[in-house]
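We both want to read discrete structure tokens more fluently, so let's practise on a single case. Would you supply a protein for us yourself, any chain you care to pick? Would you write everything just below, so we can both look at the same thing?
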Amino acid sequence: MTAATYRLGFIGAGKLAGSVIRGLLLKNFCAPGAILASEPNVETRAQLAHELGISLATDNAEVAGKGEIVFLGVKPQMVLPVLRELGGAIANKLVVSLAAGIRIVQMEEVTAARIMRALTNTPSAIGRAASAFASGSRVTDRDREKIRAMFAAIGLVAEVDDEQIDAVTALAGSGPAFVYAMIEALARGGEKMGLNKEASLQLAAQTALGATEMMVTSGKSPQELIKMVVSPGGTTAAGLRVMEERSVDAALSDAVEAATKRGQEMAREFTSS
């Protein structure tokens, strides 16, 4: 890497892209000096510079020119305009969109770059990401391996077709919000039964963390693990019965379906615009 070249360039480094950057640095995937980012928000830009020590660009063209791999961390409606704006600066580069709703074929229509999409989530900041990537028609095997290695460094990664990215966005991208809502609901139950708010929230969060780690490390299915907790006529059985009566499982499944359909709607909206 020369002084004028950066391993990774980020156009937009807000919540999601910023989480990816933090995870990469946490896991020592690369040094802060290997990352160049452009970010319009002054507060976010200052935080990136002082907290993480990465390099900051004055404009998107600088990132496109100096980044070996260019990531688009902008809002979906900005993806195609940014690609058009960058023009020939990215013609021979690998460009990876982190945005929901914009299909690879749409991006390939406005740029000669090698296009990939990668969908991840905010736990990437602590190296616990759930990510998936899809490849465009110009992408090479080496490109795929580079992106696979990058996202494997900050969590779990899978390769999918572009059409499946909407489901990944709903399950992995939106999923943390659904989990936080569940933790908050469990904590409210604890408060209702007499625990103070802080203790109840800490216990609920730690319970979710422990249960998740146990599932991941044990290799057991959710149903197998549920059976390990439930005793006939016991407290867990009573709680699960209420969850079944209130159709909690259906609500969570429907939440993923609704988020997926919204992603599909967004893709149609951007296609017609």
User: Anything to note?
Assistant: The CA atoms of residues 59 and 244 lie 53 Å apart. The chain has a mean pLDDT of 93. The chain has two domains: 6-165, 175-259.
